Amino acid sequence: MTRATRKSNPARYDHVRTSHKNEMAEDYVELIADLIDSAGEARLVDIAGRLGVSHPTANKVIARLQREGLVTSQPYRAIFLTDEGQALAADAKRRHRVVYDFLVSIGVSAETAELDAEGIEHHVSNETLAALERMTRR
User: Which residue in 88, 97, 115, 108 sits closest to 27, CA to CA?
Assistant: First the structure.
């Protein structure tokens, strides 16, 4: 694809914009699932601490996730994933694992692969993800 073609095709950036929009929701539901699995509950203070954000910032995102039907919560209570939230968390974990496994298989250290997978998982297409998974299984 030539540079001129890229400039004249704004639709090609739709995937990137959508990925950026969904990235925060995926990170939050994935973390909530991890907290529930490890501690039995996901509390706002734990979410904020793990993500390195302020309590009000985490609260604002949780409110958005509630409006989107991904989580449920009550004031001063734990946060739970809806069925849709659980599905999104499972998909985010799977995408992370595939990218991580691929990076490790090509010689990237586990620590670096973990950090890189966190960003890549949100932006890789399903086609590329499937190819990474096939390469890792060889």
Answer: 88
User: What's the rounded Cα separation, in Å, for the pair 62 and 44?
Assistant: 8
- Cβ-based neighbours of 36, under 8 Å, separated by 6 or more: 42, 80, 81
What type of residue is 47? I
pTM for this structure? Answer: 0.81
Indicate the residue type of 108. V
For the record, the structure tokens of 51 come out as: 């993500």
Q: What gap in Å lies between CA 48 and CA 81, rounded to an integer?
A: 17
Write out pLDDT tens, residues 8-22.
Answer: 666 666 555 555 568
| Cβ count near 7 (within 10 Å) | 8
Three-state secondary structure call for residue 6: helix
Reading phi first (left if > 0) and then psi (alpha if -120 to 50, else beta), residue 76 is in left
Domains of the chain in start order, with CATH, are 13-137 (1.10.10.10)
